[in-house]
Structure to design on (709 residues):
């Protein structure tokens, strides 16, 4: 299945672009996807703390925080859009 | 309390009666400091004690108080913010507005903790404050001048080594535009609720301050421990460490769109094309118009956007902005995705002294009325007020500030504009204050924050709940939890009251909460401002703001959302989302209960007594 990952803020520099399409086997999870895109030590260090997401890193599946789903175990389906970004504030 | 004429405060307030031309220096009551701290809390108490709730906001009986905090004058991060409290000519309830810059520090360095303005002058005047000396001076020579011209004219001729700082209104305030702002440092703005019109009604063009009076810190070790902790945490958190400097507040634009919360066409929906949103994003701003980031006094965060746009004469025009709110409310809310046009309209608003947020909300309302045929080309003097017409923005700002043509109606704000056409339901306001750039249907917590904000729909006074929408999850506060929203928003509102009363920036809240502030405030003053005491102060200030609103005639019926938000859904994550009237009522009653207000939203007698709030003298 094909998943689109979108990056925001300084994650665009770290991941070298605004978005990326990733092909994964059926049944893959958000954790599997992030393992796949964090293919350098620097990328991994920005996103993960051990096996969990770093505090203040947000991952959303189709606009919903994965915290409201099954976290990194959230399963993916074809054409899902996953957004990954550091917590941003404003107003 | 320790000696409040020395530690954290000067122990002096300045009370100016513009009708009588009388200036009095008065002692600051130590009990007020103990119970209300400073900034918003202190200003609210000083205001409440003097104002007649039924007064005409634009008349001589309105009172406008500007207060500083015990941390202003120290080196605490972001401790530069002044706070104004007044009766709002836009809403009729409490007006409460906050700004960074350098004016508040300079005012405190002139030897005073707060300034009380009452009465009205017959002719334009300005107030000149120096240590041990304050006088009213004629201001006819700057009346009619814009914010930048006035600031320059009144800063000129300062003695070397004795710089002056200017707080002033522009033509919008002079013309009693109900959405007029007050500015300091050229582009730092007390924007919301129309404080510019209050000063315009008093014919007070400017307050110029200078001085070098210092405060002392009582317990240096305690203060320093809080300061060290605060600075350490600000360097750790991505938001305060780098994100706001890199992207400004408009770094949120794409993300708020991602979670279907970015309002469109006067809150008719939250649907935008990704490529349109990208054109007005913080990233695009950083790559195109941004010249440099900047910061307020003592701010390590640096969210200011110093920008340039191509001018009509071929030379670049320079200014500040736009922020997130301005970008969205003058942009996508009006179906406009032209960053240069938004930036120019922002520049004009800063010069003429308009609140960019209320202007954007009013403009979007005008565009919807135009689309529905309720406002015609005849009304607009031939201008095309269609959604998406970026060319009309700059002209509309100017006409509003000068009350020219259709601008005379826009100057009244969105509610009075829509009501003048017999259709107030097209005004997206709460308590007549234009709603910020987060759609309340996308987060119950944000919706309740807007509903219960003392000043009407304000994301800063009502509680900034957007962060919760990002995190979601059972460990935090789900976006649509009726159960958790009331307590969550009360906590956020209380943190905001404390930040406003300490004279510090909301954005520090993305690095740390109350504890470092408790140590800094207690260390600076020698008073007991523990976390528990600060929480008590926040509850006291919230109750007092509400007491004023009740006395000014506000009821629980004013704590609601426009019908559009209960009747017309937006689509979030594929589901229809609205905030039904039943859901509003349930959250409202839970919130009142948590605040210990009665079912009609009035602070209970027991609460008032337990918080030791002195009632108005009969």
């Amino acid at each position: 299945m094909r998943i689109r990952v979108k990056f925001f803020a300084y994650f665009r520099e770290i991941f070298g672009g605004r978005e990326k399409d990733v092909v994964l086997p059926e049944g893959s999870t958000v954790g599997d996807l992030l393992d796949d895109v964090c293919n350098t030590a620097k990328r991994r260090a920005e996103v993960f703390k051990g096996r969990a997401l770093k505090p203040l890193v947000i991952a959303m599946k189709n606009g919903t925080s994965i915290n409201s789903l099954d976290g990194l175990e959230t399963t993916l389906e074809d054409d899902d859009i996953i957004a990954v970004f550091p917590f941003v504030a404003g107003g | 309390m320790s000696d409040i004429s020395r530690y954290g405060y000067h122990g002096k307030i300045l009370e100016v009666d513009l009708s009588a031309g009388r200036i009095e220096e008065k002692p600051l009551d130590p009990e007020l400091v103990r119970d209300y701290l400073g900034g918003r809390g202190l200003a609210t108490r000083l205001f409440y004690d003097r104002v007649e709730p039924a007064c005409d906001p634009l008349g001589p009986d309105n009172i406008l108080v500007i207060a500083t905090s015990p941390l202003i004058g120290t080196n605490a991060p972001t401790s530069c913010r002044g706070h104004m409290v007044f009766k709002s000519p836009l809403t009729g309830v409490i007006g409460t507005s906050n700004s960074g810059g350098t004016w508040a520090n300079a005012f405190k360095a002139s030897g005073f903790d707060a300034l009380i303005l009452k009465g009205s002058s017959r002719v334009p005047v300005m107030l000149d404050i120096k240590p041990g000396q304050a006088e009213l001076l004629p201001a006819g020579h700057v009346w009619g001048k814009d914010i930048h011209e006035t600031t320059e004219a009144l800063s000129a001729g300062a003695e070397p080594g004795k710089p002056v700082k200017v707080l002033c209104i522009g033509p919008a305030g002079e013309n009693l535009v109900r959405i007029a702002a007050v500015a300091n440092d050229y582009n730092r703005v007390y924007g919301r609720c129309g404080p510019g019109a209050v000063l315009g009604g008093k014919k007070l063009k400017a307050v110029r301050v200078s001085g070098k009076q210092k405060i002392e810190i009582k317990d240096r070790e305690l203060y320093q421990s809080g300061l060290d902790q605060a600075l350490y945490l600000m360097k750790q958190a991505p938001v305060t460490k780098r994100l706001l400097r890199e992207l400004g507040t408009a770094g949120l634009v794409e993300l708020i769109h991602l979670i279907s919360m970015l309002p469109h066409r006067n809150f008719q929906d939250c649907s935008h094309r990704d490529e349109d949103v990208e054109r007005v994003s913080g990233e695009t701003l950083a790559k195109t118009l941004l010249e440099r980031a900047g910061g307020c006094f003592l701010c390590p965060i640096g969210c200011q956007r110093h920008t340039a746009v191509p001018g009509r004469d071929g030379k670049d025009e320079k200014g500040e902005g736009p922020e997130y709110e301005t970008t969205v409310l003058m942009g996508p809310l009006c179906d406009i995705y032209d960053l240069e046009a938004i930036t120019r309209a922002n520049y004009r608003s800063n010069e003429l002294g308009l609140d960019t947020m209320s202007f954007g909300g009013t403009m979007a309302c005008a565009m919807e009325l135009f689309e529905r045929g309720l406002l015609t080309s005849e009304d607009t003097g031939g201008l095309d007020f269609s959604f998406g017409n970026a060319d009309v923005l700059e002209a509309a700002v100017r006409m509003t500030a000068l009350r020219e043509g259709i601008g005379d109606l826009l100057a009244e704000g969105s509610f009075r504009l829509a009501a003048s056409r017999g259709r107030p339901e097209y005004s997206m306001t709460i308590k007549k204050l234009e709603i910020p750039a987060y759609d309340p249907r996308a987060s119950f917590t944000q919706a309740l924050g807007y509903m219960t904000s003392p000043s009407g729909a304000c994301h800063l006074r009502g509680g900034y709940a957007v962060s919760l929408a990002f995190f979601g999850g059972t460990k935090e506060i789900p976006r649509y939890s009726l159960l958790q929203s009331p307590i969550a928003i009360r906590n956020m509102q209380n943190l905001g009251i404390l930040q406003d009363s300490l004279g510090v920036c909301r954005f520090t809240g993305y690095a740390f909460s109350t504890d470092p502030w408790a140590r800094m405030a207690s260390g600076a003053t020698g008073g007991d401002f523990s976390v528990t005491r600060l929480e008590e102060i926040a509850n006291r200030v919230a109750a007092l703001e509400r007491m004023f609103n009740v006395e000014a005639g506000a009821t629980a019926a004013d704590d609601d959302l426009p019908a559009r938000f209960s009747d017309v859904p937006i689509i979030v994550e594929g589901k229809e989302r609205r905030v039904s009237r039943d859901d509003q009522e349930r959250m409202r009653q839970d919130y009142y209960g948590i605040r210990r207000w009665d079912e009609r939203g009035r602070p209970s007698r027991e609460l008032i007594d337990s918080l030791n709030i002195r009632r108005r003298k009969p």
In short: Residues 531-551 of chain B form the longest helix (21 residues).
